[in-house]
UniProtKB/TrEMBL annotation:
The chain crosses the membrane at residues 12-35, 41-71, 162-182, 221-241, 253-271, 291-312, 324-348, 374-395, 415-435, 490-511. Belongs to the TMEM104 family. It is a multi-pass membrane protein. It comes from Anopheles merus. Its main location: membrane. This is Amino acid transporter transmembrane domain-containing protein. Residues 13-66, 136-474 form the Amino acid transporter transmembrane domain. Keywords: Glycoprotein, Membrane, Transmembrane, Transmembrane helix. One of its GO terms (cellular component) is membrane. It holds the Pfam family Aa_trans. It is found in: Membrane. The keyword rRNA processing does not apply.
Length: 512
């Protein structure tokens, strides 16, 4: 885990954009529908509260990242100290501790530490290239990229590590299912756009024809698009590919353009209604029955915790990191409110995937507007197709970590490593989406059950364990400048209580 070189770093504003792009993803497309179920007053309050709880646990992850770096730096420092002790012994013709047959290993360790404290001075260490690590402020850094899985291995026991990888695998399965359903549904609605009733629901897809004189129903076309999508992109799971910086920047551009256009169209519909004779749309203000659905969707919509090490470590100036993340969350919260509020006041019926409200209409004569409608309808296809192989490969690797010994991975046979686990990653989402096309249900389930683990429980468990480890190893005299502003045990306990409340609400809603 070496520190990143200068050419791998990027300025603060790039990190700001990348965090925004990471959070504002597929969940945002399902947010207006969930928002409409809860009502605009209750929904607005829920978004603010859930954004705040997500921000709290993001600060926990950042603090744990710094603690993991501190542990890594401390261990390197101990290695340097021991190396200097050996050199000191040789130069001074002092009998080496390891040559004493009567000394046990524990005695050797204790004597080494005594020699370091009593005989080595700062001046004697200055010749080492890593003497910067003796500075009290350089223990807690974000210079090395330590992923969430590495932190779990560092701070968790065996059972906790298993639960971590299991929870992450369930979340990634949900991710792939949402991607598959969203892409297949978007392709289907574009293909069947000229023979689709505006008030049709998912329940009508089994009987409604895709084409007026055709034999295939909308459900048949959805399943064909689903199988085609997985067939085209699924084989990438058998290899290793990376999402390049340029592809990520292109995705950012597409995403910002699409969301800006959707908000603009909704505002235009409010200011200049399509049907001037129709009564204005009056969405409900509050409906407590819609809260469980909104909770799962919001948790999924504010998810970024699993990718924070990859995004924050390359930022060159980390002195303003807390302000950067805070500003990101404020803007994203405002952006989600703007997207949801304009949507529920502009459309009487909001689809579970918001882009489906902009499906090209047969009576659209303006060529530019028709092109915009096609762009919005196919927007999930563009962005999610680029992310699908990356998520599938990540899931494959996590499944291997969960069930195989990572240290002896090459010892397993070829079929198990290169065929079985890739298939295990892509086939279950295909089966799930074959029997359900409800993006809202997939988002709600993934966000609430797997999402609460990734966004709430794991950060709390990590930060509590990391604080305890660093206090015992490094001591409390050195302050972690990346510590969370939510100190003590009250805030972690509050997050756990909030998690239990969310799980109870959603579970009761599913049972009833």
């Amino acid at each position: 885990m070496p520190p990143r070189s200068a050419h791998e770093e990027y300025p603060t504003w790039v990190g700001f954009v990348f965090i925004f792009n990471l959070i504002v993803g597929t969940g945002a497309l399902a947010l207006p529908s969930a928002f409409s179920h809860a009502g605009w007053i209750l929904g607005s309050l829920a978004i603010v509260v859930l954004a705040f709880m997500s921000y709290v646990t993001v600060t926990f992850v950042i603090e744990t990242m710094a603690c993991a770096n501190a542990v890594h730096n401390w261990k390197r420092l101990q290695f340097i100290k021991r190396d200097r002790v050996i050199e000191y012994d040789e130069d001074s013709n002092v009998e080496s501790l390891v040559d004493r047959p009567e000394a046990s290993d524990s005695d050797n360790d204790a004597e080494h530490e005594r020699l370091v404290d009593d005989q080595l001075t700062d001046a004697s260490i200055e010749q080492t290239p890593l003497n910067i690590m003796y500075c009290r402020k350089t223990y807690y850094t974000l210079s090395s990229k330590i992923e969430l899985g590495e932190m779990a291995n560092m701070f968790f026991g065996r059972t906790q590590r298993f639960l971590f990888y299991f929870c992450l695998a369930v979340y990634l399965y949900g991710d792939l299912s949402i991607y598959s359903a969203a892409v297949a549904k978007s392709l289907r609605d574009v293909a069947c756009a000229h023979n689709h009733r505006a008030n049709a629901t998912d329940d009508d897809d089994g009987t409604e024809r895709c084409w007026q004189d055709g034999l295939l129903t909308r459900l048949d076309v959805y399943r064909l698009c689903l199988v085609a999508f997985v067939t085209v992109l699924g084989p990438f799971t058998f290899f290793n590919v990376q999402k390049t910086k340029y592809l990520q920047l292109l995705t950012v551009l597409f995403r910002w353009l699409a969301f800006s256009v959707m908000i603009s169209i909704a505002i235009h519909r409010l200011l200049a209604p399509v049907d001037s004779t129709a009564l204005p749309i009056t969405p409900k203000r509050a409906d407590i029955a819609g809260i469980p659905y909104l909770i799962g969707t919001c948790i999924y919509s504010f998810m970024c915790h699993h990718s924070l090490p990859s995004l924050l470590t390359p930022i060159a100036n980390k002195g303003r990191l807390k302000a950067l993340v805070s500003l990101d969350y404020v803007l994203i919260g405002g952006f989600y409110l703007a997207l949801a509020l304009t949507g529920i006041f502009a459309f009487a019926d909001i689809k579970d995937l918001y882009t489906l409200n902009f499906v090209p209409s047969a009576d659209q004569a303006n060529g530019l507007l028709k092109a915009v409608e096609y762009f919005l309808a196919l927007f999930p296809v563009f962005t999610l197709s680029a992310s699908f192989p990356i998520v599938a490969i990540t899931l494959r690797n996590n499944l291997q970590t969960l069930f195989l010994d990572a240290a002896q991975l090459e010892a397993y046979n070829f079929f198990l490593r290169r065929v079985f686990f890739p298939l295990l990653a892509i086939l279950p989402p295909l089966v799930v989406c074959y029997f359900t096309e409800s993006v809202s249900n997939l988002v709600g389930f993934t966000g609430c059950y797997a999402g609460t683990g990734i966004q709430y429980l794991i950060p709390v468990a990590l930060v509590l364990s990391a604080r305890r480890t660093c206090d015992n190893m490094i001591g409390r005299g050195i302050v972690n400048e990346f510590h969370s502003p939510f100190k003590g045990t009250v805030w972690p306990m509050l997050v756990i209580g909030w998690t239990i409340a969310c799980l109870v609400l959603v579970t009761i809603d599913l049972v009833i």
